[in-house]
Structure formats: C-alpha cells, structure tokens
Design brief:
By secondary structure, the protein is α+β, with helices and mostly antiparallel strands. The chain contains 15 helices and 17 strands. It has helices spanning 2-5, 10-71, 78-85, 91-104, 186-193, 268-272, 275-288, 293-335, 339-355, 359-375, 385-400, 427-439, 473-485, 488-491, 503-515; strands at 113-120, 125-126, 148-156, 159-169, 176-185, 203-207, 213-216, 236-243, 246-254, 261-267, 382-384, 407-411, 421-423, 448-455, 460-466, 520-527, 530-537. The strands form 4 sheets. A 5-stranded antiparallel β-sheet has the order 2-1-5-4-3. The protein has a 5-stranded antiparallel β-sheet with strand order 7-6-10-9-8. A 5-stranded mixed β-sheet has the order 12-14-15-17-16.
Length: 553
C-alpha cells in the first residue's frame, strides 16, 4: 500500500503522461475515426444504391406506361371485335379474318412486341403458341380482372420474353369475349436493367410480384425465385443479410405500377474497403510502436484519398444513369406517337370534308397527310429527286392556303427527276428558310419560290430562288467559305456547327458526308433583291450508294 502511495519517478510520470495524453487519445481518435468513416461510407453506398434502384424503377414504369398506352386501343380494334364474334367452325370466315391480321394490325405493333396471340371465348385462336409461366391459368378461362397486366416470364422459340395481356370486351354485350396475349422482347427491359453493380460481388435484380427473378446480374438466376422475397413487405427498404461470404446490404423498392421488386445487393466488406484492415493495423502499430504513427497516418491519408476517389466514381456513375434515364424518357415519348393513328385521323377529316363538299379542306388534308407520311420516313434513305420535289409540292400547296399571291414555280426537266440522288428532307429546310428568313423576318409577304434544275457534266445543280430580303453579303461569304474549307472529320464531331442557325449547315453536312466532294450547298446570291442557293447533287449512275449514313453526323 505504501508503495502505491509513494511518488512516481520521473520516468514513470513521463510514461503515464505519454500514455494518458497521447496514446489513449490517439487510440480513441482512431476508433472514432473508423466508426464515423465506416458509417459515412455505408450511408453513401446505400444512398447510391437507393438512387440506382429508384431510377431503374422510374424507367421501367415509363417503359410499361408507354406499352400500356400503345396497346390500349387494341381490344376495340374493328378487326379484333369482328374476330371474337366470329364462329370458329366457319373455316372460310376464319381464313379471311386471319389473313387480315398481318396487314391491318400486326404490322403496326411496336417493334419490341415479339409475339401476338388472340384467344376468344368461342374457341378461336390466332397467333403463334407461347410457353406460358407455370402458375398462369389457361388464357381461355378469363379469370383475370385487370385489362392490362404483366403475367411474368415465359419462352418463345427458346428465347425468354415477358408476357403481357389485355382482356377483350364485346362492344355489344360488354362481356369478356377474348384475350390478347403479347410476348414482349427482353431487349429494352435488359437495356434498362443492365446497370453495373457496386463492387465485384455486388448484384442487381428485378423480380415480379410473385418473386420470380426477371433479371439478375448473374444470368444463371433468371427464372428462379428471390430468396428474401417474403421480407420485402414494404414499398421500399433496406436489409442486412448474413451470407457465407460475409455480410451484405440489400436495398429494394417496389413499383406501384408494375409491382416489380428492384433489388440492389452490395458486399459490406467491399463497401468499407480496407477500413477494417486499416483499423487493426492502426491499433496494433499505435499500441506497440508509437514511432510508426507517422506511417500509419500516411496510410490513412492514402486510404481516405482512395475512398474519396470511389465516391467520385459513384457520382460519375449516378450522372451516367441520369443521362440514360433522359434517353429512355425521350424514347418512351417518341414511341407513344403512332403515325397510323394520325393517318387515320386525317383520312376521317378528309372523308367529312368530301361529304360536306368542302374541297379546300379535303385538299389541305390530303397534302398534309402526304407531307406527314414523307416526313416520318427514314431520313437516312436516299430517294430520287422526283420524290423530294413531290414532297415540296405538298408543302407549298399548304403554304398557298396562307398566302393568296404566292407563286411556286418548278423548272426541272422531267427526264432528270429519276436520275438524281438526294436524301429525304434536303430541299424542304431551304424552302422553309426562304419563308422564315427571306420573307417573314423582313416583314415581306411571300410572293415567289422558284426551283430550277440544270444538268451539268458531273453533277446536277438545283437552284432555289426567292424574292425576299436575303442575308448580309459578309454572312453569305462566311457560309460559302465554311462550305468549302471545313473538312469531313470536323463535320463528324458531335454537335459541331460553325453557325448559330444550323439549317443550311445541316443540309450541307448531310450531302457532303453522304456523297463526298463536290456535293453540297453554295450561296450564289443573297441580298435585298432575293437569294439564289445552289444544291449540287449526284447522278444515280455516278454514285451507287452513299458513303455514310446520316446517323454518322
């Protein structure tokens, strides 16, 4: 007892002082640093995966919303209504109706619908057989209550597909009279779900409302059932799972629309990186040799730098996912535009105009229908000059309804119309420029648009002339200089344009990249008395096929 009460020696005092004021705080600081860093990294990883799951969920909802919208009108289609009412024992009637399906209906379906089948309550069927999921009752039982439903994964010709269906109601009795079964290609579904998971042992999965895995990073698990399905009983959440290879964090979200469960799984060890190893090493070094503290702190610094680099990479991946989401949204919006619906609407307007004997409306509708059909066709396609000028005539017929004194003159040898190459929608932007910049911008009432063709030795020159205000000479000179000097490699750069107004430049770039030198645009004259623009085009005997598609621009 006396020994304990005796004053400590200077050496012991220094040891106690060093232990209490440095080593213990140092060790405590290391423990706190590790705990906070691990917590921050874990929350960062979970947040990243939650954002990943949420964005994929939104893309899938938008994708299936588009499919639902595009197929909503199918049960009321006149051909389908006629088919469900037909007697299946009438062989001739069945042959006649089935022969109409490929032309009137199937050809107008979305490109990602790989299979199309119709079953009726009377026993008639059209389409190819599809191997349905085992837990789905025969389609003829009509036990489904939803008009649009995703039935799950199946196979068609040995290839996995998603089954979607709609019930067909008889438009007379309003009773269920048939069902439409569609096999949806997995391509777009996989493109949305094909996201690189976090770490080597991370995974990403999508399961339907029965728990069957529709997509998994490991393709061997496609069609199996999600092990943690019963625990995912909320709209979203996170789970910590103990696996043989270590603890895993699981983040999930349930789609309100499709009932799909989108799941992202990450290894907790990979998420924390080398923090556990670093903690043990730091504690060991700090407890045994204080002199190695500098090296330990150096290693901590580099580890923090590596972890910050991983956080930066996570943010880049999140940005990439956001860009993919925008592309998917644009694709979904574009896929909802059904050209055949617009054609039918225009034909109905034309029919009403003919019945009412309002010929101007009938002619306007016909020109607009022709204009639209030509405009939605493949812009990469090379057509004859005759087709392009016919399109311009439809455009000018519509403009003549706006301007009473407008004159449209075409002076092209008819023998040359089928001998000259041109891309679709090459001439129309120049004619539109005449209306917008030569006339309307200068507050001049449009009066004359003239198109003249001249057959030269090596190319065909097409001149577009107006009597508007034109552009300043300096600007016209800059345009011609750019047309002549800018190389094709420069044109191929994404988004490149030397001018704010890109109409003339886009037309020139399409011609130059497609057909090469010397084809393209040249401004002959532009001023107060009007403009003349020359388009140099190839003969069909000279250039057999374009060198580049327009999508290269």
């Amino acid at each position: 007892m006396r020994k304990l009460l005796q004053p400590l020696s200077i050496k012991k005092n220094l040891i106690v002082f060093f232990l209490v004021l440095f080593i213990l705080p140092f060790l405590a600081l290391c423990l706190i640093w590790y705990a906070k860093s691990a917590e921050m990294m874990e929350e960062s990883g979970i947040y990243y995966n939650e954002q990943l799951v949420q964005r994929v969920n939104m893309q899938l909802d938008e994708y299936f919303t588009g499919i639902s919208a595009d197929t909503r009108s199918l049960p009321g289609h006149p051909l389908i209504q006629e088919f469900i009412k037909a007697d299946p024992n009438n062989s001739y009637e069945m042959f006649r109706l089935k022969g109409r399906f490929p032309i009137e209906l199937v050809s107008n379906l979305r490109k990602d619908i790989a299979g199309f089948t119709i079953l009726t309550a009377k026993g008639a069927a059209y389409g190819s057989p599809i191997q349905l999921p085992k837990d789905i009752e025969p389609f003829g039982s009509f036990q489904w209550t939803d008009n649009f439903k995703i039935a799950g994964m199946a196979e068609k010709d040995g290839v996995p597909v998603l089954i979607i269906y709609r019930i067909v109601m008889d438009n007379v009795s309003y009773e269920p009279a048939g069902s439409i079964i569609m096999a949806l290609s997995f391509d777009q579904f996989v493109r949305i779900a094909d996201i690189k998971p976090y770490g080597k042992h991370g995974s990403f999965a999508i399961a339907d409302e029965q728990g069957q895995i529709l997509y998994h990073t490991d393709r061997q698990k496609w069609g199996q059932f999600l092990p943690q399905f019963e625990q995912m009983n909320q709209e979203s959440g996170r789970l910590e799972m103990k696996e043989p290879e270590g603890k895993k964090l699981l983040v999930y979200q349930v789609s309100k629309q499709t009932k799909f469960k989108i799941v992202s799984e990450i290894s907790k060890y990979e998420l924390l990186g080398g923090l556990i190893r670093l903690q043990l090493l730091t504690l060991l070094v700090g407890a045994v040799i204080l002199g190695l503290a500098f090296l330990v702190f150096s290693r901590m610094f580099w580890e923090i730098k590596r972890l910050l680099g991983e956080i930066h990479m996570n943010r880049l991946r999140e940005k990439e996912l956001e860009l993919k989401h925008r592309d998917s949204l644009m694709s979904a919006l574009q896929s909802r535009i059904n050209p055949h619906f617009l054609y039918n609407a225009l034909e109905i307007i034309n029919a009403y105009a003919i019945v009412a004997q309002v010929r101007p409306i009938s002619r306007m509708t016909q020109h607009l229908s022709n204009l639209f059909r030509y405009s939605v066709s493949n812009p990469d396609q090379v057509v004859s000059l005759r087709e392009e000028l016919d399109h311009i005539r439809n455009y000018m017929m519509i403009q003549e309804q706006r301007y009473d004194n407008l004159q449209f003159v075409v002076n092209v040898d008819s023998d040359m119309l089928d001998k000259v190459y041109v891309y679709r929608l090459i001439v129309q932007p120049l004619v539109e420029n005449a209306f917008q910049h030569a006339y309307e911008q200068h507050e001049i009432t449009p009066s004359t648009i003239k198109i003249t063709g001249v057959a030269e030795a090596d190319a065909f020159a097409l001149y577009i002339e107006d009597e508007g205000g034109g552009m300043p000479p300096e600007l016209a000179r800059k345009y011609n200089e750019a047309f002549e000097t800018i190389s094709e490699n420069k044109m191929l750069q994404s988004g490149f344009s030397p001018f704010q107004r890109i109409g003339l430049w886009n037309v020139h770039a399409r011609l130059r990249l497609g057909f090469g030198v010397p084809y393209g645009i040249h401004i002959i004259r532009s001023g107060e008395d009007g403009s003349i623009i020359r388009i140099l085009l190839p003969y069909m005997t000279g250039v057999i096929t374009p060198r580049l598609s327009e999508r290269s621009i």
